[in-house]
Amino acid sequence: MGDRKPYPSDVSDEQWEPIGPFLQAWKARRVAVLVSVSGREGDYDLREIVNAIFYQNRTGCQWACLPHDLPPKSATYYFALGRDDGTDQVIHDLLRCQAREKVGRREDPSAVVLDTQSIRAAKHVPAATTGKDAGKKVSGRKRGLAVDALGLVIAVVVTAASVTDNAIGIRLLGRSSNTPRR
């Protein structure tokens, strides 16, 4: 953080402790990919990049409107690589397991709750990604969610609203069973 005053969205020391070393190792593995077009490696601290992402997520500001004391959008972009290679899912699973253990539960849930919800799509959403849920008379998309008994998210699926709940349930169970076991 340096000399800047912290924002309410900044990662606390307690929050950074489990993910910081993991992200440092990820960055070390990706160093060849993370070199910019100009040939420079990232000049920004990973924690500050996470702070910038959280600031944008919390406030909803446009990337170009990030405060000047946070890294710019260009510095945060390579976290898309983490999304694409599944790193964000691994961090999510790690944090969920730790949250479960913190309240005295086993890290892997013994039961999973599945639910779906149909949501109206905005007018500009492509018709190819929407459908009509005949039972609920909703045109749009459907989201499926798998959670544990604590309400912690295990898997999410978003489809056209015309996809049946059974098909979404099968996808959710497939993703739930692919959760890494340690």
Jot down its keywords.
182 residues; four-stranded antiparallel β-sheet; IS402-like_dom; Transposase; alpha+beta; single chain; Transposase_11; 2 domains; globular
Helix content: 40-55%
- How many domains make up the coordinates? 2
How would you characterize the largest beta sheet? 4 strands, antiparallel
Q: How many extended strands? A: 4
Overall geometry comes to globular
N-to-C CA distance: 33 Å
The whole-angstrom Rg is 19 Å
The proportion of residues in beta strands is 15-25%
Structural class: alpha+beta
One letter per element, helices H and strands E, the order comes to: HHHHHHEEEEH
What are the segments in which pLDDT stays under 50 over at least 5 consecutive residues? none
Mean pLDDT: 86
**How many DSSP helices?**
7
Set out the fold topology:
Blueprint: H1 13-29, H2 31-34, H3 46-59, H4 73-76, H5 79-84, H6 87-102, E1 113-120, E2 131-133, E3 138-147, E4 153-160, H7 165-177
Antiparallel strand pairs: 1-3, 2-3, 3-4
Account of the 3D structure:
With 182 residues, the chain is of the alpha+beta class. It has helices at residues 13-29, 31-34, 46-59, 73-76, 79-84, 87-102, 165-177, and strands spanning 113-120, 131-133, 138-147, 153-160. Strands 1, 2, 3 and 4 form a four-stranded antiparallel β-sheet that branches. The longest helix has 17 residues, at 13-29. The protein is globular, with a radius of gyration of 19 Å. The two termini are 33 Å apart. This is Transposase. Residues 108-174 form the Transposase IS4-like domain. It comes from Plantactinospora endophytica. Pfam families: DDE_Tnp_1, DUF4096.
